[in-house]
Amino acid sequence: GTAALIWNEIIREKVTNFIMNQSKEQRILNFVLQNAVRGDPCSVVDTIDKYCSQKEWAMNVGNEKGLILDKTVQEANPSVALELGTYCGYSAVRISRLLKAGARLLTVEFNPEFAAIAKQMIEFAGVQDKVKLLEGPSQEIIPQLKKKYEVDTLDFVFLDHWKDRYTPDTILLQECNLLRKGSVLLADNVIFPGTPDFLNYVRKSPHFQCTNYPSHLEYMQVEDAMEKAVFLG
């Protein structure tokens, strides 16, 4: 089943890491540097998808859910967007290519190795002027957004980090007054691996209006979904 598939991928990755003396994330970056067009974010996104669907599975949002992400970003048309969980920079590049002139994306990554890879990915894609990578734990960075990063309110938030942080970070965004009426939250992986407490929280809250988008886990035929929660104030 699914668990066996993913377990096999993990073992294969560990063996490859050992033999090649580099991480899967470095291999993804190298593949992009060698095969994508510098300064072309669409080419970077397509090249990552190609690598992860053909060579090694990775936890990017992927192309199928990426289309849901694209549509949500286009509808929200944000001036200021926040991403929680940068990983290799796939969705940061994907989101930034849709931002209007003068708009910016702040993306938060806890893992220093992933942050270093993402920084290179973002620069190679030519979107570094639109994207600011903030390194550290989300619960420390969110309360600094207003003062340190001059954010008034967030128009769009993409949650794709530690699943147990979805709910506390959503509450933190509210407590820090970072959401305004109409702010759009989009959460990935709400079915697999699943975020039942987050779904329970936003769906029962009078402050959010929710829409569910059934889909599949990136690069696999495993059921997953994204949840959109619009803040009503």
From TrEMBL:
Substrate binds at residues 163, 189, 218. Its cofactor is Mg(2+). The keyword Methyltransferase applies. Binds 1 Mg(2+) ion per subunit. The keyword Magnesium applies. It is an enzyme of class 2 (transferase). S-adenosyl-L-methionine binds at residues 61, 91, 109, 136-139, 160. Transmembrane segments: none annotated. Keywords: Catecholamine metabolism, Magnesium, Metal-binding, Methyltransferase, Neurotransmitter degradation, S-adenosyl-L-methionine, Transferase. Its EC number is 2.1.1.6. GO terms for molecular function: catechol O-methyltransferase activity; magnesium ion binding. One of its GO terms (biological process) is developmental process. Belongs to the class I-like SAM-binding methyltransferase superfamily. Cation-dependent O-methyltransferase family. PANTHER family: CATECHOL O-METHYLTRANSFERASE, CATECHOL O-METHYLTRANSFERASE 1-RELATED. This is catechol O-methyltransferase. It comes from Edolisoma coerulescens. The gene is Comt.
